[in-house]
User: What shape does this take?
Amino acid sequence: MADFKRIRACAALAAFLLIAGAGADAGAARFQMSYLYTGRTASYIQNVDRTDGALQVVSPSYFDLNADGSLKVTEMLDTAFIKNMHDEGIKVVPFLSNHWDRTVGLEALKQRDALVSQIADAVKRYDLDGVNVDIENVTETSRNDYTDLVKKLRAKLPAGKEVSVAVGANPTGSAKGWPGSYDYKALADSSDYLMIMAYDETSIGDSAPGPVASIGYVEQSIQYALKHAAPGKIVLGLPFYGRIWKTDGTVLGDGIANSAVDALVSRYGGTTAYDTVSQSAVSTFTVGTGQPAPVVNSKTLTPGTYVIWHENEQSMKRKLELVEKYGLKGTGSWSLGQESADVWNYMTLWVNGAFFEDAKGHWAQNDIASVFSKGWMNGTAARLFSPDVPLTRAQAAAILSRALLPGQAAGAAKPASGGFSDVPAAHWASREIAIAAQAGIVDGVSPGKFEPDAVITRAQMAAMLARALKLNASSATKATFSDVRSDYWAYPYIQALTAQGALQGYEPGMFRPEYPVMRAETAALMNRLASRIGENGR
Assistant: This one.
């Protein structure tokens, strides 16, 4: 832990950071949806659970098309899954797909009046939340029919049901072929949002290996969309997959889940580099003769050298930065379950407004992520948590109010004053301080004074927490720390929390009660007490 002089030096910085924007979220929550394609209900639920609350919408493969263009409700539809998602506050918006079959897609557009009625009936019957239209590989000749289908869906479905459209990326502004199918402006006017499929820049069958979604391709696709639709109508599609090539030309861009890449590289002693031009990861490995042959998407890979272009944390974050740069509605992804294991470590934070770059690799990284996701602690600025900056008394009161008294902290009515002359109504934490004071969690440092922007000490934080959780130390409890005498004002609070396993010493046998509490320490402390807070929350 940092020495005392360095901690004190941070206090002035803390006051600036925490007064300037304290209490406010680093950014508004961002929309995020994902497609569910392979698997069944059990795996769907597991994949959604791994997102840790980052998704607002899931789009399962429930709506296909028959050869005559009519709706085919797939065997994948499961009402139990729909109810499960609704219980989690997640909308279920199945995607309508022709699976690249042009003939079927064109037939559906011809029979669109009947198709619209069939979709509306299915949405009502199965308690679905709308439809995501994903008809692909029709051309500019069907552009108006495509738009009309979406208009009719919007008119037919109730206002509370989503109508969204998965549109092909169009970085060059082409009006012909597949990209010409989509009238971005008209489709945006008749839908909740356009989900830009900003991937498959290099695709299956391409002889030369290349990125699935280079940063230039993605940004140009966004810029084209913004010429025709408002930022709030645009959702950026992210690839949770890569593509693999064999150097002898026998494998040409087959899809591979991002989650499978690291294992292949590790198993066969491969390497991973980062292409700074495309902002994409590139992995290479060689399967030797006699080595166990790996299987990728049901295809056994024969001995030889393979190249995979894929996404990693660095490339994904560059794409997320474009969402911020252009103020887009949020992101979509194809498809859930293919992502690498670390994705939700940062995507969950991002969807709530911050990456917290300064928490990456920090000893309290997981604690910070946990308390942030619970809404107990915010960042100090965009992407910054300032883990090693001291906490103020106002921040501490706000955190405890959010954690222990969530209903009151989020209430619309202004609570009565906490009785502190130095906490005016305009102070960012006046509500939380008043609530915490009324609940007996916090008190002043002197009559009528709270000193909201003073750095809180470890003893003061212990007292606040112990009061909040109604903990008391037994009179027979032996002193734990040599620098906390039994007649010290905060002794019972420190002892009570230590008995709960929540407090740790500053160094062996020492508590340092007058030292400031770091923001990272607070996150760890709150996370350790999370289960107890759940029991005591009012």
Remarks:
- Confidence is low (pLDDT under 50) at residues 1-28.
